[in-house]
């Protein structure tokens, strides 16, 4: 794939338990928190998202989950990526295993030239699986009445 789209800013380290007042000077740089800290607390530590939209928070959540699971080089091993799909993306993937499109997407993961995925590859994988899922089709077909 093309160049990696994620920024090295997300890899800033910070010792101790960060609070909002201790956050780095730039509003875009989240502090590096231990993996034991919940995603919602990590999300709350990002100043730029204090008044962020649901969509912005959704993308930031994907980035945080990726960062928390990635190795020191900022990459995900295939086994880790598959584990994230089973634990964090189960509602989009459950029952989809028999679909040819689903199998094609996962076979591409197995055939990936590197043994690791960068953030761009991971997001493409998530979106590809979501697009072919019955759950997304159900969400998109629901008519909202006011």
How would you explain this protein's 3D organization?
The chain has about 150 residues and is mainly α. It folds into two domains: about 5-50, no CATH class; about 70-145, no CATH class. About 50% of the residues lie in helices and about 5% in strands. It has seven helices and two strands. It has helices spanning about 40-45, 55-70, 80-90, 90-95, 100-110, 120-130, 135-140, and strands at about 75, 115. Strands 1-2 form a two-stranded antiparallel ribbon. Helix 5 runs antiparallel to helix 6 (about 120-130). The chain is flat.
Brief summary:
This is Sentan, cilia apical structure protein. With 146 residues, the chain is an all-alpha fold.
List its traits.
146 residues; mainly alpha; 2 domains; two-stranded antiparallel ribbon; 2 strands; 49% helix; disordered N terminus
Would you list the SSEs in sequence order as H and E? Answer: HHEHHHEHH
Number of helical elements: 7
Q: Which value, in Å, is the CA radius of gyration? A: 17 Å
- How many angstroms separate the termini? 43 Å
Strand order of the largest sheet: 1-2
Biggest sheet: strands, sense, closure?
Answer: 2 strands, antiparallel
Overall structural domain count: 2
The counted number of beta strands is: 2
Beta-strand residue fraction: under 5%
Helix-strand category? mainly alpha
Helix fraction bin? 40-55%
Low-confidence stretches: 1-30
Rounded average pLDDT: 78
Q: Which overall shape is indicated by the principal axes computed on the Cα atoms?
A: flat
